[in-house]
User: Which sequence fits this backbone?
């Protein structure tokens, strides 16, 4: 589908469904993310938002439906192939490796390293060393930009909840993605850090990165998102501008009914 400005969506999910036993977690749900947008995905607890992310990134196999990312059908790809295509995600509970340093967490995310092949590591070719140097520089620059550079050598386990969320987003940027899916970036984060995270998202967006964000914090949704999709009981309830969604009686009812 093409929008009124003639833009193809960067991501289009069409009629996705996923059941767990008797629960239809995602039920014929569709969603579009336009290139350059910050798109919101909201809905009451248990609405199927995280499951939809899992389907989009192929962490979970859909029962039915289609996913087109950047003009290509991706429903037969593996999660690492999808990251390679330029779509990465973060988790509702940040998954950082606590026993590794902040820098090591960043470097682990780097893909396509020549060093992944053991004979390359063994030979320690100049290509590998060059690539490692570039990745370290890239990681340092990203950590610097989010204010975590001074903690680069600390264990990730020493970070606060909010800093872990920030590290997870920073790590996602290591693969130079086109689209980043954030699952509740503000949950459990103190208000000062929430504002900082929002500022970073807006800056990265201005630099060309597209976002799809699940978030319960409506201030965050209102201040960041161009368009919002609402799920309830696995199904599409509404989509529109944040203001339209805020004034939508059905949406209000779905939240009050939870
Ligand atoms: N792996 C699973 N096995 C069984 N049921 C699951 C699984 N994952 C999700 N569910 C169920 O699917 C439904 C949707 O869950 P999901 O986590 O996607 O909701 P959500 O919108 O992300 O909620 P929240 O806002 O609380 O994070 C819930 O009823 C949940 O219990
Ligand atoms: Mg969730």
Assistant:
């Amino acid at each position: 589908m093409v929008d009124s400005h003639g833009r193809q969506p960067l991501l289009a999910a069409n009629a996705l469904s996923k059941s767990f036993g008797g629960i239809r977690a995602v039920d014929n749900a569709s969603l579009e993310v336009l290139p350059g947008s910050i798109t919101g995905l909201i809905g009451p607890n248990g609405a199927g938002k995280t499951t939809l992310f899992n389907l989009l990134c192929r962490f979970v196999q859909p029962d039915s439906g289609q996913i087109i990312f950047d003009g290509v059908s991706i429903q037969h790809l593996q999660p690492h192939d999808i990251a390679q295509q330029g779509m990465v995600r973060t988790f509702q509970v940040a998954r950082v490796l606590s026993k590794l340093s902040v820098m090591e967490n960043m470097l682990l995310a780097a893909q396509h390293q020549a060093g992944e092949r053991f004979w390359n590591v063994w030979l320690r070719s100049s290509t590998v060393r060059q690539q490692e140097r570039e990745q370290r520089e890239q990681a340092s620059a990203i950590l610097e930009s989010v204010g975590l550079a001074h903690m680069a050598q600390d264990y990730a386990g020493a970070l606060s909840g909010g800093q872990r969320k920030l590290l997870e987003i920073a790590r996602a940027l290591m693969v130079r993605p086109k689209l980043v899916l954030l699952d509740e970036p503000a949950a459990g984060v103190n208000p000062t850090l929430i504002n900082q995270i929002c500022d970073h998202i807006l800056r990265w967006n201005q630099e060309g990165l597209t976002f799809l964000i699940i978030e319960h914090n409506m201030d965050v949704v209102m201040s960041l998102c161009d368009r919002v999709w609402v799920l309830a009981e696995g199904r599409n309830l509404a989509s529109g501008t944040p203001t339209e969604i805020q004034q939508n009686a059905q949406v209000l009812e779905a939240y009050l009914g939870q």
User: Anything to note?
Assistant: The beta strands are 11-20, 23-33, 38-42, 64-69, 72-73, 87-89, 179-183, 210-214, 227-232, 235-240. Residues 126-145 form the longest helix (20 residues).
